[in-house]
Write a structure and sequence with these properties.
The complex is a heterodimer of chains A (816) and B (42).
Chain A (H helix, E strand, L loop, with lengths): L3 E2 L6 H4 L18 E8 L4 H13 L3 E7 L4 E6 L6 H10 L3 E4 L5 H43 L11 H17 L8 H19 L1 H12 L5 H21 L1 H5 L9 H25 L1 H7 L5 E6 L2 E6 L8 E4 L9 E6 L1 E4 L1 H4 L5 E3 L4 E2 L4 E2 L4 E5 L7 H14 L5 H29 L4 H15 L3 H21 L1 E3 L2 H7 L4 E5 H5 L5 E7 L7 H12 L5 H12 L7 E7 L3 E6 L2 E6 L1 H6 L8 H10 L2 E7 L2 E9 L6 H10 L3 E5 L4 H11 L3 E3 L4 H13 L4 E5 L5 H6 L2 E5 L12 E3 L5 H36 L3 H4 L5 H24 L2 H7 L1
Helix pairs in contact in A: 2-14, 4-5, 4-6, 4-10, 4-13, 6-8, 6-10, 7-8, 8-10, 8-15, 10-29, 13-16, 14-15, 14-16, 15-27, 15-29, 16-27, 16-29, 17-27, 19-20, 27-29, 27-30
Chain B lengths: L2 H23 L3 H13 L1
The chains are: A alpha+beta (816), B mainly alpha (42).
Chain lengths: 816, 42
């Protein structure tokens, strides 16, 4: 059985070092709980989602349930002593929906593939039924013309005003083209229409009635209930008029039928469902792109033999061969050869990244020109690509707080609409001067058909889905809807210094030779690097790396002696070398001389000086600094322009911190703080009323990231999906911070627009359908037009969310 | 208002009352079972 033990859940303690987080303990009753995920079929709107959610919450043994309309899945936490997945599955099926347990071997990938297939099947099914219903609907409208022409109430004020308008326009045309139609018996036409309607209701629209009935039995109602009641009322009225026309005639009423309206309502709603289904597929376009990145096969060397095998069969430790232009099948470490890898689809980095032996490679990325071999390190569900897909799916499954309002409204929506429809019927029946029954029924049916809880249900999740995809495209993994909503309210940004504003690695920035020295810079560097090669000090390693970049080979070292906290002394190539700080020089009685001015300049710039003395005389001053990231100043400027208060936090001493801040253009600096101090500073800002985003490296800054309203973690290579933030930057490019925050603001605007239009559509549409404009302008809404409006309300909301796909950060930067 | 209109008015009010009772107040049978089971467990 594919159940997921509770301990397999991704918890903060697994993402962060245990000593850095203190997640709240789960309630003791959840200790023995198990989780299971179902794929749920047949959900069409927010009310369906609410219904299944309520059903599951009522089910004995179910502790937590989370139903997602768009992903069409339900995550259940249950007590195995009370219930089991089969019982929970039956509970969902009893509610009127399909449910099956999903595979968990490679959840992100497999679930996404299943969802792709389900969406494709759903789209084709809606499309076929919509096309056939629309053809039958057009035929029904033609056949209805002679019937309406014969009606005593064909003055355009009774029955369906849309059909009367069509009739006035079409009758002369039809009489010319199909004169025989007008000679056919009225009852024959009515029964022909009845047969067509039964076919459409029983085949194309069957699910409206079965699901509505299922919902009704469970004291629940959804979009299907509204459609079923609206079309059902029109159908049964028409059926009565067809079977017992005398009943109507004896009361002075024309036995009008509305079969064409029933068929067209079903056809239009199915058409709307078709468009909505296609648009919803587009909201997960980014995920689909990621899914296609991994090749199906890999060429490996096993037991000395080269062979091509399915990617699922690649094992950790296998040697994988890659040729120019090929995608990497799995994650790994480069063993031999070199190339530049295009990682843009995974990390958003636009330029190919040079890789040499020892470098980490990410599966799904594209090799450009070189050939190489690499050793597979992670495969299957634990690979970077799978984790990113899983994180994105989790994000898309999440709910934004702003959705709660829509959920509350859609929960009570349908019964309220029923009440309004009944009130409409009664008022029209009592007040209408001509044909009150017909007018009352048309108005009530219009109210039922135009009301649409779907748009409200789609308003927020579709925006979250498109935004998470857009985020991935920009190089940002977004944790979910709530993170997006909080990120949109940020007023203050706190940047960690080391590794965030700076490269995070000491680097030689300058070598200043002492005036009058006999040694060249190259020679000094080579000698110093030879000495430091034996040292493990980070500053020494910086010098060794610098020498390596110059292609220098190192000399053997004799009489190496480490002076703790001061430096090292040794004999290299016959020279007496001393490399270290000022204290070492003082201890050895070596004069600094004219280099003192340079030392003072370095201090101002936050640079650490390392002295190299050869045979008792200072030969050079090596400047070592953690250089500012090239984009840091530009990013800080942009954030200031967008109105954020920018602060730099660091554990470094004040001088270095202020120098870096000055170079980055930051005026608010808090230096010399420990991790607890960072948390305190963020708390202080929050108490001042700021909504704070903390940008850090995800491990050292974990407590501060957790304290901030939004934690933005900078990922590195294969660690991108492990990081701790609400937003995770998939590459070490600070520019994505501004883009991510702009995206959050833009998404929030889209959510609000969607909710506004979804609500305003119902607030305006329902009264018009009820006939409030009739006393003033004589305006009534046709049920057919109402069904068209209902069908396209959802489509318009999804289309508005899809506009986010075309958005570029530069668009908003110009206006901010 | 004639008698038919009175019947429609009263029928409509009754229908509105019933719908709101059925969807908002009356609990499904399963709910009652769940509540009794939960009560039993505690």
């Amino acid at each position: 059985m594919n159940t997921i033990p509770m301990n397999s859940e991704r918890s903060p303690s697994q993402i962060l070092p245990a000593n850095l987080v203190n997640p709240p303990s789960p309630p003791s009753h959840l200790d023995q709980a198990e989780r299971v995920r179902f794929a749920v079929g047949g959900m069409t709107c927010a009310a369906c989602q609410t219904r299944i959610q309520h059903t599951l919450e009522r089910e004995a043994g179910v502790m937590q349930a989370s139903v997602n309309l768009i992903l069409k899945q339900a995550d259940i936490t249950y007590d195995p002593a009370v219930t089991n997945p089969a019982a929970v599955q039956q509970a969902i099926i009893r509610t009127g929906y399909d449910a099956h347990i999903t595979a968990t071997e490679n959840p992100g990938r497999e679930e996404q593939m299943r969802q792709e297939q389900d969406q494709a099947i759903e789209y084709q099914s809606f499309r076929n039924r919509a096309i056939i219903s629309a053809i039958l609907g057009a035929c029904a409208m033609v056949i209805s013309m002679p019937l309406m022409g014969a009606s005593e109430h064909s003055d355009g004020r009774t029955g369906d005003p849309f059909m009367h308008w069509i009739m006035e326009w079409m009758t002369p045309v039809l009489k010319g083209m199909v004169p025989g139609l007008y000679t056919l018996d009225r009852s024959f036409l009515s029964y022909s229409l009845l047969a067509m309607t039964v076919l459409v209701m029983g085949w194309a629209g069957r699910h409206f009635y079965t699901r509505a009935w299922s919902a009704f039995r469970h004291h629940s109602a959804d979009m299907n209930t509204l459609v079923a009641a609206g079309t059902g009322a029109a159908f049964f009225y028409s059926l009565l008029a067809t079977i017992t026309p005398d009943l109507f005639l004896s009361r002075g009423l024309t036995p009008e039928v509305y079969y064409e309206a029933v068929i067209m309502i079903i056809a239009l709603i199915l058409m709307g469902n078709t468009l909505e289904s296609r648009a919803k597929r587009q909201t997960s376009a980014a995920l689909r792109k990621l899914m296609t990145l991994q090749p199906r096969t890999a060429r490996i060397i096993r037991n000395g033999v080269e062979r091509e095998i399915p990617v699922e069969d690649v094992q950790t430790g296998d040697t994988v061969l890659i040729r120019p232009g090929e995608r990497l099948p799995v994650d790994g470490t480069l063993v031999s050869g070199a190339s530049a890898i295009d990682e843009s689809m995974v990390t958003g980095e636009s330029l190919p990244v040079e890789k040499s032996p020892g470098d980490e490679l990410i599966g799904g990325t594209l090799n450009t020109t070189g050939s190489f071999r690499y050793r597979a390190t992670t495969v299957g569900a634990t690979s970077v690509l799978s984790r990113i897909i899983q994180l994105m799916r989790d994000a898309q499954n999440s709910r934004a707080p702003i959705q709660q309002m829509a959920d509350r409204v859609s929960g009570i929506f349908v019964p309220v609409v029923f009440s309004v429809a009944i009130a409409t019927f009664v008022i029209w029946f009592i007040t209408a001067e001509t044909a009150p029954t017909v007018q009352a029924m048309m108005a009530a049916v219009s109210v039922l058909i135009i009301a649409c809880p779907c748009a409200m249900g789609l308003a927020v999740p579709t925006a979250v889905m498109v935004a998470t995809g857009k985020g991935a495209e920009l190089g940002v993994l977004i944790k979910g809807g709530e993170a997006l909503q909080r990120a949109s309210r940020i007023t203050s940004i706190v940047l960690d210094k080391t590794g965030t504003l700076t490269e995070g690695q000491p680097t030689v920035t300058e070598i200043v030779p002492a005036p009058g020295t006999d040694h060249t810079i190259q020679q000094i560097l080579r000698l110093t690097a030879s000495l430091e090669h034996a040292s493990e000090h980070p500053l020494g390693q910086a010098i060794v790396r610098h020498a390596a970049t110059k292609g220098d080979t190192l000399y053997p070292v004799q009489t190496f002696q480490s002076k703790t906290g001061r430096g090292v002394v040794a004999t290299v190539e016959g020279f007496q070398l001393a490399v270290g700080n000022k204290t070492l020089m003082d201890e050895l009685g070596i004069q600094i001389g004219h280099l003192q001015q340079e030392v003072e300049r370095f201090a101002k710039e936050g640079i650490t000086p390392v002295y190299t003395a050869i045979d008792g005389t200072v030969a050079a001053l090596i400047a070592i600094a953690d250089p500012l990231r090239p984009s840091a100043r530009e990013v800080v400027n942009a954030l200031h322009q967008q109105g954020y208060r920018v602060t730099m936090l660091t554990g470094d001493h004040k001088g270095t911190a202020e120098a870096v801040a000055r170079m980055a253009g930051i005026t608010n600096v808090v230096a010399g703080v420990l991790p607890e101090g960072k948390v305190a500073e963020i708390t202080r800002l929050q108490q001042e009323g700021h909504n704070v985003a903390m940008v850090g490296d995800g491990i050292n800054d974990a407590p501060a990231l957790a304290q901030a309203d939004i934690g933005i973690a900078m990922g590195t290579g294969s660690d991108v999906a492990k990081e701790a933030g609400d937003l995770t930057l998939m590459r070490q490019d600070l520019r994505t911070v501004g883009s991510a925050l702009l995206l959050a603001r833009k998404t929030m605007r889209t959510m609000k627009q969607n909710l506004f239009w979804a609500f305003i559509y119902n607030v305006v549409g329902i009264p018009i359908a009820a006939g409030v404009l009739y006393p003033v302008w004589g305006l009534m809404l046709s049920p057919i037009l109402a069904s068209a409006a209902m069908a396209f309300s959802s489509v318009s909301v999804v289309a508005n969310s899809l506009r986010l796909q075309r958005w570029r950060p530069a668009d908003d930067m110009k206006t901010s | 208002m004639n008698i038919i209109e009175w019947i429609v008015l009263l029928g409509g009010l009754a229908a509105i009352a019933w719908i709101n009772w059925y969807f908002f107040l009356a609990s499904p049978a399963g709910d009652r079972v769940k509540r009794s089971r939960t009560h039993h467990h505690t």
